Each structure stands twice: as C-alpha cells, then as structure tokens.
Amino acid sequence: TNKTKITAVIGHPLDHSLSPLLHNEFYRREGIGAAMIPITHPDVAELVRIIRTIPLCLTAVTVPHKQTIISFLDEIDLTAKEIGAVNTVINKDGKLTGYNTDIVGVAYALRDVDFKGKRVLLLGAGGAAMPVAYYVREQGGELLCYNRTAEKAKELINLFGGNVITQLSQLELEPPDVIVNSTVVGMYPNIDESPLPSSLLTEHQTVFDVIYNPNETKLLCEAKAAGARAINGLSMFAAQGLEQERLWVGTEASIEEYKDFLLKK
After folding, report:
1. Which residues are CB-neighbours of 90 under 8 A, at least 6 positions away?
2. Which residues lie closer than 8 Å to 41 by C-beta, 6 or more apart?
3. 5, 66, 95, 224: which is the annotated catalytic residue?
4. The pTM is what?
5. Backbone dihedral angles phi then psi of residue 132, each to the nearest 5 degrees
6. Is the CB of residue 60 less than 8 Å from the CB of residue 241?
7. pLDDT mean values, one per 10 residues, the chain (265 residues)
8. Exposed/middle/buried for 206, CB within 10 Å: 0-12, 13-18, 19+?
9. Contact at 8 Å (CB) between 130 and 156?
10. Is residue 152 among the annotated active site residues?
C-alpha cells in the first residue's frame, strides 16, 4: 500500500542474494508493513542517491559496495569504523548511518570454534573479509591472509595484524587450523569453482565459507571429503540479516528458525 515502508538490498550483481526472501518473511511473521526489494547498480554513488530519494528505511549492502559506500554516509557506527566495512544503512529522518552486522553473523557461525593460538587462513581481503579478520584478532587467532591482489592482503594485515600469504603452496608443510573463504569463488552461478586446492584440506581443520548460495559450496564438499568440519554461510547470513532488522525495528528473532526456513526454500 502507500503506507508500506521500502527496504532494499544493494550490490552488483544480486543474482545470489536471498536477502529479500529472509527480510520479507520477517515482515510477514512480525506483521510489519514493509517490503524488501533488490536494487543492483555498479555505481555506489547512484545507489546512495536512490536510498535518499525513495527513501529506503533499511538497506542491506553486499558486494562490491561494503567499503566504497562508507564515504557517502552521514555517520558510521564505531564497530563498523573499526572493521572498515558497512553492510547495513539505516535511514532515520534523512540521516544515513552505517553499521556492520556481518560481525554478529561471523560470531554466531563460529561460536563453537576455538581460535586462541590457532593459525587461521583467510581467503580474500574485501568487505566480507574485514569482519572475519576483526573477529579472529579479537579471539586471539593468528591471521594469515591470501588474496589475488597481494597489496589488498597487505592492507588488511596492516589493520588487523598477521601475515600475508603470497602463494598457497607456502601452507603445504603446515596447513592452517581454520580456513575461512570470504571471496565469491564458488558462489552461484559458478558453483563448480573452489578458492583453495583440495590438497590443503585435512581432517583436523574447520572450514567456514561465508557463501550461502549454494548451501554447500565445492570448498565445503571437499572439506567434508577430507574429514574436516565444514560450516556454511547460512547461519552467518540469517544472524546478520536479523540483526539488521533489530537495528531498524528493535525486534529480536530466532536465528535457527529463520535458518530452517531458508533451508527449505
């Protein structure tokens, strides 16, 4: 109706995104007069103009705009500032404030993993990698970052500490204890790709893929075959999305209930 509040997920591309499915189900269950729509555009400045013009009450931000959107916002939450990436924008009376709820998702997905003193290989150094690096540092892990562009990996390590891996073959003699994929390699529609050679996977590892579409990436399939503990991105996705709604409407929701809902879709 003309009273329906509009929220959106922005990024480029958005073929993989389940955000409208999750958030619209939340609105249905909670009886909130709102609807989430996908808006894709390569230019973040144009997307911010749309946020202000429509206006959008809540905006979920995904690749590749989690870092570039920061300079266009009026205010940044302290945690998002420390992480260096924004995945949530709340529009309150025309003032755009950026938050990072990915850190809530990372913490929830990895809540049973012991990081203290463990070697953690982080694949990728973009906006999705930042909250992972932040969390690993806070949990006392030893961060190792590999990225296609070594310069970006160096920038991340300068922020959070650790070491840059320039060649994955460096890890063959001493494989990491935990592996986290924060890249889009293996995401729908390119589901036959993996960011890591299967030779680096062992039964003693925990492997976490932030990708949630598909539910089980090639990386996770190979991790399971090697006997490793495999964690998909659906818990992180549900937790961070529901935290976005808590920031906007103040309502808490069961992460596991919504995760089960998404698994059935």
Report:
1. 57, 58, 96, 97, 99, 247, 248
2. 10, 12, 47, 50
3. 66
4. 0.96
5. -65, -45
6. yes
7. 95 95 98 98 98 98 96 98 98 98 98 98 97 98 97 98 97 96 96 97 98 96 98 98 98 97 93
8. buried
9. yes
10. no
